[in-house]
Amino acid sequence: MLWAPVILLALLSANPEPSLNPPSPAVAGVHAARPFPKSAPQDSAAEREMLQMINASRAKAGLAALRLEPSLSVAARAHADFMVKSGQLEHQLPGEPALMERIGQVITIELDRAGENIAEDSCIEHAHDALMKSPPHRHNLLDGGFNVVGLAAVWSKGRLYVVQDFGHQIRMHTALETRKMVSEAVGDVRKEVGLDPLTPYAPAKLDEAVCRMTQEGHPNARLLQTAFDNRRIITYTQSHPEILPQKALPLLRESDVRQFAVGTCYARTPSYPTGIYWVAILLY
Questions:
Q1: How many Cα atoms are found within 13 Å in the side-chain-facing hemisphere of 248?
Q2: Residue 132: CB partners within 8 Å, gap ≥ 6?
Q3: How many CB atoms neighbour CB 117 within 10 A?
Q4: pLDDT in tens, 193-246
Q5: Strand pairing partners for 155?
Q6: What average pLDDT score do residues 138-148 get?
Q7: Residue 55: in which H helix or E strand, if any?
Q8: Short-list 222, 115, 232, CA closest to 167
Q9: How would you class 144 by CB atoms within 10 Å of its CB: exposed for 0-12, middle for 13-18, buried for 19 or more?
Q10: Pairing between β-strand 148-156 and β-strand 67-68 as defined by DSSP bridges
Q11: What is the crossing angle of helices 124-133 and 44-60, to 10°?
Q12: Using CA atoms, how far apart are residues 177 and 243, in angstroms rounded to an integer?
């Protein structure tokens, strides 16, 4: 039997704090629905098919395929179950954390941004078609900045609940690699204005002090001033630690500075649930 099903869609993007767009219903075209499984609410076959359709659409747009990330799928399935139990299509339901927090609770990789599409439909084929025809949802699906995805397809009362959690996985650098990246960036700033390079200095336990700073929830230079007897300290957070804050550049360009030290710590905190680099630069 041919019929015109109703699909409900919603999307969410976060970088790093999510902004919520409410679900918007839309009447779609004619499709024949694939029978839904009565014994297994989670439809693994539909999830595999969804990944194939997403990557086929990305290939047509000249984009790299998304890698299925199991830990992101855990987050997606948990949210799908939440929606099924509540009977609502929302990105955050009562008693549920926001997107970045619930992803951060389960992922085993490092992300610097995330986004989410959710839908309720009669079959996975039609859900994908409807998402691709909706400009904001299509934007998530064809976002070249995303490289991983977690997927969930769960049946309830003859309807398929779909969750697509997108992310941009970043490489995890060692403390030594991070210090080198920051040091090179400092050197570039000095070189641009014709100043001599600074001499590296390595005070004891600077990395440990920066890690303690994460407990405050924000970079606080005052926590380091007493311990290291220094009044010129730059602190910041970045998913790309080599990107120096603009407010730090005047300090780095001071002609009387001769030495510098870099301390780093990668940490997940309530403010940055998916993780971020914490950096301190001491100038002498």
A1: 21
A2: 57, 138, 141
A3: 26
A4: 999 999 999 999 999 999 998 988 778 887 788 788 777 999 999 999 999 999
A5: 160
A6: 97
A7: helix 44-60
A8: 115
A9: exposed
A10: parallel
A11: 30
A12: 14
C-alpha–C-alpha distance, residues 172 and 274, integer Å: 12
Q: What are phi and psi of 118, to 5 degrees?
A: -130, 150
- 35, exposed or middle or buried, with CB in 10 Å at 0-12, 13-18, 19+? exposed
Residue 12: the pLDDT is: 56
Distance CA 11, CA 19 (A): 9
pLDDT (average), residues 262-284: 94
End-to-end Cα, the chain, rounded Å: 77
- Which token pair is 86? 């509540």
- C-alpha 81/C-alpha 68 separation (Å) is 19
Structure tokens at 263: 């301390």
Sole residue written with tokens 């499984």: 37
Tell me if 263 sits within 8 A of 280, measured CB to CB: yes
Q: Is 19 helix (H, G, I), strand (E, B) or coil?
A: strand
Tokens of 103: 């992803």
With a CB cutoff of 8 Å and minimum separation 6, the contacts of 270 are: 101, 217
Dist CA 23 CA 117 (whole Å): 10
In the numeric block, the tokens 């200095």 are attached to: 201
Structure tokens at 220: 């606080």
Q: Which two tokens stand for residue 198?
A: 């600074």
For 248, the token pair is 């730090």
CA dist 52 and 159 (Å) reads 21
pLDDT, mean of residues 133-154: 96
284 touches 258 (CB < 8 A): yes
> How far from 11 is each of 128, 229, 257, CA to CA, in Å?
13, 49, 49
Instruction: Tell me the per-residue pLDDT of 175-194, one tens digit each, with 9 for 90 and over.
Output: 999 999 999 999 999 999 99
